[in-house]
Amino acid sequence: MAWAPVYVLTAILTTVCLAHFLSRTRLPPGPAGLPLAGNILQFPRKHIAASLGSLKNIYGDIIYMHVFGREFVILNAAVDAVELFDRRGSRYSDRPRTIMAGELVGKKHAVLFHPYGEELRQHRRLLKSAFESRRLAEYWELQYTVSYKLLAALLKTPEDLMAHLRHSAGAFTMRIAYGYNVSDGPEEDQFVTLAEELARLTAKASSPGRWLVDSFPALRHVPSWFPGAGFKRWAINARKITNEFAAAPYLHAKTAATAGIRSFVSDTVDLVEGELGRPLTKADDEFLKWTSASIYSVSVAINSSFFLMMAVYPEVQSKAQAELDAVISRDRLARIEDRSSLPYIEALIKELHRFRPITPLAPHTTLVDDEYKGYRIPKGSWVMANTRAIMHDASIFPHPERFWPERFLPEGAGCTADPREYSFGYGRRRCPGLSIAESALFISITHVLAVFKISHPVDEYGHVITEPAEFTDEHIAHPYPFRCTIEPRSDAMVKLVAQMVSLSSDI
């Protein structure tokens, strides 16, 4: 009888170990890891999306990894991302807790990082109302004006392409978000400078696996003066810039609203106090401040990608220009109503989204334990749709490494999949401003192609300098710095730009 407690204890330990083993074997396949540290050695530090996608050849479409207790489930196939994020959205709509980006840098109130719940649902409804179809025509007119000014700037100083793209993106987003008119002087506008710096800091702060504090949250309490706490000092500076950009233009918008200047901020306040019949709460105020700060769009990234692709693939540029010349008369530039008559341009836009997606990874978090295809997906896991791998799935997009808009046309591959179904996010986290972003891209691309020829630069000996199509591996991916030559196609187009600028409304 003296041995009875030992037998009982042995049985309990055996049961616990067996249960742990069985639960582990039901996880998706993945590389074997180290005790405690897990897959710290296998988790990629650079080219994250591409590296995770390459593991598909070894472990399949669904891969499990863990690093210091943090669990990752990587989805490399569209069918799995759609099933989990769209059809099972109530279980997969949370965002991972990011200590660096969300708490230390202070982005936790932004829609992108906000945890899922009733508060987020209410605020997304407000966003949807602000971007609904009855406002689109107003946004289009503003986008035309911004585009005309971009063309004029490129005619004047084409070598300053990136500065012009940042200014153009800032002019549109600051106007619709805050009712703020970006200055057109030689110096870059203060808010555009802040917005660009904030985008850079956010990309760095939210990079998966970059910060040890994300795996060991207790490190957030380490004082900034402590040896080895450089991450804390970096976060303090990033938080200062984040708060400055969230607060300053927001206060401008509230002041401008009293003068009758409309913006996303004023429209949302009117909606809450008017149609919903309730006063603005502190949560509403925080939402407005941080959502407005998030509206600085990915347009700089995708527009710079467009210029690079046109230089690298001149045959694509020529086909797009031939279509524009055949459909649009020479005395005007394309408008939204021309879109249905420009199938090659539409295919080009799809291919821009597909070839190098601006958001290569889409991290969600499970709210509950779930089971899918016989695998256990633990509650709290980082479930990441590998959008880059999805866009390069040869079974959906043939010859994925080829930049080939014809794949979306009947005479090409006849591909019916639309990359925009994945590039703007998934399920209940899908970007609510999709229609605005798409119209801005269409207007910008058609106007630039009508006016300019884009090509590789040449050296002093007349030799072509070939720029590689290489992209960063950040939260918002964009081309590495590159050079291209931007020249007007004709004197008539130069005159047309001047005419359109003079006739457009001021912003």
TrEMBL record:
> Which molecular function term from Gene Ontology is one that the record holds?
heme binding
Q: Which co-factors does it depend on?
A: heme
The reply on keyword Transmembrane is yes
Keywords, in A-Z order: Heme, Iron, Membrane, Metal-binding, Monooxygenase, Oxidoreductase, Signal, Transmembrane, Transmembrane helix
Residue numbers binding heme: C431
Asked if the Swiss-Prot or TrEMBL record annotates the protein with the keyword Membrane, the reply is yes
Q: How does it sit in the membrane?
A: Single-pass membrane protein
- According to the record, the signal peptide region is 1-19
Assigned GO CC terms? membrane
Q: In which pathway does it act?
A: Secondary metabolite biosynthesis
What PROSITE patterns does the database record attribute to this sequence? CYTOCHROME_P450
Where does the record say this protein resides? Answer: Membrane
The entry assigns this protein to a family as follows: Belongs to the cytochrome P450 family.
Matching PANTHER family: P450, PUTATIVE (EUROFUNG)-RELATED, P450, PUTATIVE (EUROFUNG)-RELATED-RELATED
This chain belongs to the protein called Cytochrome P450
Task: State the species of origin.
Answer: Fomitopsis schrenkii (Brown rot fungus)
